[in-house]
Amino acid sequence: MKIAQIPSNEVARLRALNRLKILDTVNETHYDTITQLASYVCGTKSSVISLVDENRQWFKSTIGIDICETGRDVSFCAHAINNPKHLMEVPDATLDPRFHDNPLVTDNTNPVIFYAGVPLKDNEGHAIGTLCVLHNKPKKLKKKQRKALQSLALQVEELLKLRALNNELELSRKHLKRHNDLLKDFAGTVSHDMKMPLANLIVTSDLLSKKYDALLDSSGKKYLKYLKQSSLSLSDYISNILTHYEASSYDLDDRVEFHLNDLLEEIMDLLDVNHDCEINFPDENLSINCNKTALEQIFINLLVNSIKYNDKETTVINITSENSDTFYRFSVKDNGRGIPADKIDTIFELFKTSGEPDRDGKKGHGIGLTTVKQLVEDLDGSINVQSHEKVGTTFTFTIKK
């Protein structure tokens, strides 16, 4: 028996094989379908997708044999990969000096007498294994059978390339997730650490204003007022950042049963509405089963925006709901100033705003609607907006049941 030579690119070849992370994985229908077809087309008892590891050949898919690997020293495929561009055919292994005394050939129960294998190559041309057909009697493939086997080998290569791409995407996803987690931790830590100094600054400005009011001229009082307003604005900005990053940590599988209008009543108790505001709830008090905290945060952000950016004497907000077999559908419609047409495509992007100040003259931070979109998508839903300047805006979103 002649043991196959080690390929000159063995180190790179094994590296390519290991990058696939395919060794010792479970059976997959796509591969099994190809081996079944190869055996049928070539008229052989067995067919195998063999991957040649450092000391063994491991079978990703087998038809007609009940083992999952053999030693590399007895492998026909270890010979085949030395000629990556050519199909290797052994019509009668008992007459071939390389294999005549090979244990796979001399086996009395299921001998390998005929072998034909097409090397399987990766994107860089490394032959990592073969698609091969085996038979227990001498045989020779016809020209059409050889061509068919080579075509099927190309299909295996496409599956392997797709697997390699999926591995790269999964690795990129993990790296991205790790970086995002670090960013969230950083943002959360910094935001928390800044809240207390800001609170102290706000309280101190109030104390200075009260205690030294008689000593301060108009400019001093104005500067203290600016200091407090800026501190409050920054505190609000930090709170929005915290809400945005905390939203990504919601356990969306934590579902509870509740009624929509009851939730909206709770939200109204939380909102500080200091002007005429008419909020109309849905006619039907819809029963909902989902993550209540996430839906509450969505409605809070939408309602706060409708109230803050309304320029009418009386703010009117209409909330509707629908119930389908697979989704809940909601809309929040207001009679506000509307979103400028050139801003509507970016309104859900982080830190992007309409550019308009709210009814108190303060500009938004561009965080709330990003949080809304994130939560809606995390709930397997979608959101869209329709807006007309000086008429109003309607946000419509769905969440999956």
TrEMBL record:
One of its GO terms (molecular function) is phosphorelay sensor kinase activity. The keyword Ubl conjugation does not apply. It catalyses: ATP + protein L-histidine = ADP + protein N-phospho-L-histidine. Residues 142-182 form a coiled coil. PROSITE patterns: HIS_KIN. Its EC number is 2.7.13.3. Residues 189-401 form the Histidine kinase domain. Keywords: Coiled coil, Phosphoprotein. SMART domains: GAF, HATPase_c, HisKA. Pfam families: GAF, HATPase_c, HisKA. InterPro entries: GAF, GAF-like_dom_sf, HATPase_C_sf, HATPase_dom, His_kinase_dom, HisK_dim/P_dom, HisK_dim/P_sf, Sig_transdc_His_kin-like_C. This is histidine kinase.
